[in-house]
Amino acid sequence: MPAPPPNISVRNRRTSRLVNIGIPYFWLGLFFLLPFVIVLQISVAEPALAQPPYTALWQWVDEGLLRIEINLRNFMMVAQDDLYLSALLNSLQVAFICTLLCLLLGYPMAYAIATSPERWRIILLMLIVLPFWTSFLIRVYAWIGILKSNGLLNDLLLWSGLIDTPLAILHTQTAIYIGVVYSYLPFMILPLYANLTRLDLSLLEAAADLGCRPMRAFLRVTLPLSMAGIVAGSMLVFIPVVGEFVIPDLLGGPDSLMVGKLLWTEFFSNKDWPLASALAIMLLALLVVPFVMMQRLQQRMEGSRP
Amino acid sequence: MRRRRWPLLTVLAFGYAFLYVPILLLIIYSFNESRLVTVWTGFSTKWYVELFRNEQLLDAAWLSVRIAAVNATLAVVLGTLAANALVRHRNFRGRTGFELLLTAPLVMPDVIIGLSLLLLFVAMQETIGWPDGRGFTTITIAHVTFSMAYVAVVVRARLSQMDRSLEEAAMDLGARPLRVYLTITLPLIAPALLSGWLLAFTLSLDDLVIASFVAGPGSTTLPMVIYSSVRMGVSPQINALATIIVAVVTLAVVIAGISMRRGREAR
Prior knowledge:
The complex is a heterodimer.
Chain A: H1 6-43, E1 58-61, E2 65-68, H2 73-80, H3 82-114, H4 118-133, H5 136-147, H6 152-160, H7 173-197, H8 201-209, H9 214-225, H10 227-242, H11 246-251, H12 259-268, H13 273-304
Antiparallel strand pairs in A: 1-2
Helix pairs in contact in A: 1-13, 2-3, 2-13, 3-7, 3-10, 4-7, 5-7, 7-10, 8-9, 10-13, 12-13
Chain B: H1 6-30, H2 46-53, H3 55-88, H4 95-107, H5 110-128, H6 136-161, H7 165-172, H8 177-206, H9 209-214, H10 222-231, H11 236-266
């Protein structure tokens, strides 16, 4: 770009940098990063009958002496009580199984959409996104009416003669699986679709020309090439599901405790803010690894893009 | 290359059925006369009448819509700035941290965002006296924090695909960068800004968990009302509400689709 005199362009560039980088950075630093520091601080405080309900981490005792109290009670409780540990493990299990189920259902769907005629694609894709624009809460609620013991699914199964007594599905782990796969399926399909449409189909043709069977071509060519989409979709499902609250609360039962619901209960019912904070820190620690994996992958894909 | 497609198409059909049957059932039973959602006793629109007489729900809906609109507008501004930063300033110090902060809200569980923001607001109120109490402002700030990340994704994709020759031509003719941005770049990325705005609006309207943490007494949003009524058990009024939402969304999508097609044909 030749025209503008250099001093103006340098000044403009500096202003642009300040505004474009500075403002969002400031906002996210204040309202996203700083809160975690406070959560960490409160996770080592003790609950107190006060407003707000926790003890101060540091206080000035007389003669300018600063006293700092760090209390690991909350982490000890989480580590020693089976309730918290099993909730953490169960959350990971639910997230893992649901990610797998989303992949098993989502991959063929994304593949079918990506290989369908061009004029169909946009409509098929729209139909995947559409439920996402309606209320998440209401879509989870829809399953209550379907899964409960005198619900529509049991009515159908009883009427068809497949079962004699109603199945208990609502308030079990199975209901959570169904609800999660139902709500998070679009998050799996969209990155997979984006990845599969960019795929170079001539490679598949080359494989076919060389006598490769379709299934083998899929396993050796398509699947490795779509790995980026698989990882992206899996992380978009796995990470938020570990901390999911609404689905285990509405569809799950006493045997299917998840950490998000436990955190909610500690906070709203037991008013134990420090313990809730400790749970949040544990949950964050669990999610760091998959998150860094996702971030790495994204940067690598950006680097390879022309 | 012809291959058998029926196994794929079967999965596709099953997938769409899985996504849409629950919604269809919700709609059908919103016209059911009985309070028991699963027993069909006859056609009736009485749940719609009750819905529109439900003051508490209407108030909450109005509050939610106002929060969603303010949130979407702020999120589009901040998200677009962030997208500019990522696309136009390729290398700056702290870029990795910037990207991290911008990606994390997309996947971070709601309970963590909600709890941490509430603790921040409480600490701020204690030290600097702001925000004074919790409600509209705190919910909006919380929503902007995660929805700006979604806007940034949408705007960034559009910005990086954009043809920059028009901008360069304007620069060559001596237009100032800000003027170029406002008169050339913004109109070119307008569709992305619109879809970003709508996305942020929907995300805000849909959020139960984060709002529950940072709301104060007297600021009950629509999802909170839906949640407490759903917890009581199945309620046909919620079915009626669902039907209205689905109708509005479908209408908006169809209109958007038609106008997009017209725009393409006109070109």
